[in-house]
Amino acid sequence: MATPSLGLSKMATPMRLFVRKVPEINCAKTTLSSARMLSTRSISAPSARSHIDSLSLSLRNTFISVPKLISTANLTVPASSILAMAHGRQMSMFSSLRSQTHRPVTKFSQTQQRSLFGGSMSHNLLSHLEETANKNPKSATAQNAFYQALLKANMPAIIADRYQTGHFASNPTCESAYHRALGMLGQMNGGGMVTPSGQSGNLGNAQTQAIGQAVAAHSRGGNIAISRGQASGSGDKITPMHVIVDESTGSAVFKWVKFGLYFGLFTYFSLVVVSIMIETFNSFVRARPGGAKTDNEAKAEHQNVRFTDVHGCDEAKDELQELVDFLKNPEKFSTLGGKLPKGVLLVGPPGTGKTLLARAVAGEAGVPFFFMSGSEFDEIYVGVGAKRVRELFASAKGKSPAIIFIDELDAIGGKRNSRDAAHTKQTLNQLLTELDGFAQNNGVIILAATNFPELLDKALTRPGRFDRNIVVGLPDVRGRLAILKHHMQKIIASSDVNVETLASGTPGFSGAELENIINQAAVHASRAKAKAVSMLDFEWAKDKIMMGAEKRSMVISQKEKEMTAYHEAGHALVLMFTPGTDPLHKVTIMPRGNALGITFHLPAMDKYSMSLDEYESRIDVCMGGKVAEEIKYGPMGVTSGVSSDLSSATSLAYNMVTRFGMSPQLGNVDLMTNYEQLSAGTKLLVESEVRRVIEEARLRAVKLIQSKRNELDLLAKALMDYETLDRDEAFKVVRGEKLEGRAILPSGSIIKVPEGMATILAPIPGSEPVDKGPKGPPGGGALA
């Protein structure tokens, strides 16, 4: 490819110059000769650029402007051609020599005067150094040589312009030359150099004050400091003025407050966006097939339960039958102006069938059944509970006649007080509002159930809201018999099962517990691969529920096993030979629950009250275990296993003295209600009476067991041999009869110890039975 030409051949060939014999004109003559040579032939771009650089430097050193040179030399070419040659490249490839040419000079100080060739520095040498520096922009040595030559030629502006471009290499020497050039420029400005506008380079006091006021208006009270050094800028874009703003305390505080405000708003909107995304995701999950269903909206259900499926609460069924008749034939009750209650509250212990009764009412009436638990109303968001109450009643009204059933009403209907926040009782307030605006003749009945009616707010249970309470109590023996027969229809029972015996042996059991007995008995028989559920399976299930599960893996020393046997034998003897006690049900030294042994007694019939004689008999039975240990091992051999017996005896004695008026010293006074307000003397008298009652019971137990010492040994030995005895077997043992069909367990620990462990299972000194046993149902008792 051909080298591009600069196109200088169009310049005129003849160039005549009439010069004076002075050094400046001689230099111009040399320069014009170079120009004439360039105009006569085409040369390559690099060579042309090198000649132009030399020509431009020579023209500058002579202080002769290009137009003047043209007119003096009487050239025939237009001045624009020479200008294009000299200035079109901006005097060099990197504009290093431009500023001195265009800077007007008004006067020269002593340091600014120079000779025609810049002192002793030749223009050819400067041109050569500049060309070398341009060809080697990454050579700091070449740049420094050019800078030093410019300093000697008194051309600091070229150094400043060239260094500030950042296109050339630098080192500490170049940087030092740059700083010297800046210093020389500062002296020139102070010595007479003016800005292009003709004004002084430094700002006046009025200008400085105006700039300070302008900056202060946007600095919120900051202090303004302006540099006034010799080299200070004039404030334009080339030589900016250095201004320092000292931020005030108020401005800093305002900045941090603004930052906190922006950060708080950003955090708030971020949380809102995240909450919306979470709600959207949850809605998507609920909408998917098989997704999580967290919607607590009550939906209408049609029940198949009937009153024939409910047993053990005949009185409650009779009262609820009125609601069924009202739902079937409301005109029957409105003829004479009568009104049915808006709400019916079912009260009773857990597992007595309150929810089943409500479902039976809906099933008998054939109306939609809306069911919600009290815990389903409230959530973490305020107002959700009140919203769900409104939706529940609106749905029921839309499908009337209907039944609304709220289980565990105490979860939302608890008593209010003045210290509660307003939003904590919104659900209850909305429920009260809905009950007030609920007409009796709209075909909707509200049923609710609770185990703690005393916790409900009085505004909820007043007449006109939940104004009728139906007690659903524990079933009696006939109710238990009916419940057992109903659930036994679902299993295969053997012919030896006596349902009447099972019903009489489960006093205080609820319907749910009776169903659990039948279910566990069926599971136990299935594990044994039996064809039918036998009476032994039912007895096993009943004992497990009343006394706890057996711990057959527990390793007990022979000594501790014997101590437990004598302890339980003492309870059983007092229970068998003391008038006024409940019949013995079972005595065992098999660990169950938290007890090493249990003596269980059950009443022959359901009991709802007890006499003074019966209370004293119970305390005698409690003291029988400790007395038996004292007689066998002495006072120092009594173990801590008697702690639960002493606790039961003390509780019975306190009730006798403070609640039932059974103390001759204190009389017929209720001291339990305000016991904390009693005087110290009265409390001492109460404690004295409690000690008297317990001590008298201990003496009676000592007298009985000492008179039955042989029976005590026989009963303890039988427990060591058989582990568990029922009532009939215990009486055979104390009469000295043998137990037919019972295999004697091998002596030693209850559980066979693997070989190699017998040596490390020696009796531990001071080993004691566990002090607490499971509590039996109401009407019965369990003694550890």
TrEMBL record:
Q: Work out whether the entry's keyword set contains Zinc-finger.
A: no
Which keywords annotate this record? ATP-binding, Hydrolase, Membrane, Metal-binding, Metalloprotease, Nucleotide-binding, Protease, Transmembrane, Transmembrane helix, Zinc
Specify the signal sequence span: none
> Where do the segments described as Disordered lie?
764-784
Q: Does the keyword Glycoprotein apply?
A: no
- Check the record and name the InterPro entries matching this protein: AAA+_ATPase (IPR003593), AAA_lid_3 (IPR041569), ATPase_AAA_core (IPR003959), ATPase_AAA_CS (IPR003960), FtsH (IPR005936), P-loop_NTPase (IPR027417), Peptidase_M41 (IPR000642), Peptidase_M41-like (IPR037219)
GO biological process terms held by the UniProt record: mitochondrion organization; protein quality control for misfolded or incompletely synthesized proteins
GO cellular component terms? mitochondrial inner membrane
Q: Where in the cell is it found?
A: Membrane
Query: Which family does the record claim for this protein?
Result: In the N-terminal section; belongs to the AAA ATPase family.
Domain AAA+ ATPase, which positions? 340-476
Q: Which GO terms describe its molecular function?
A: ATP binding; ATP hydrolysis activity; ATP-dependent peptidase activity; metal ion binding; metalloendopeptidase activity
What cofactor is this protein dependent on?
Answer: Zn(2+)
Q: Where are the transmembrane segments?
A: 259-278
Which SMART domains does its entry note? AAA
What is this protein called in UniProt? AAA+ ATPase domain-containing protein
**Family annotation (SUPFAM superfamilies):** FtsH protease domain-like (SSF140990), P-loop containing nucleoside triphosphate hydrolases (SSF52540)
HAMAP family xrefs: FtsH
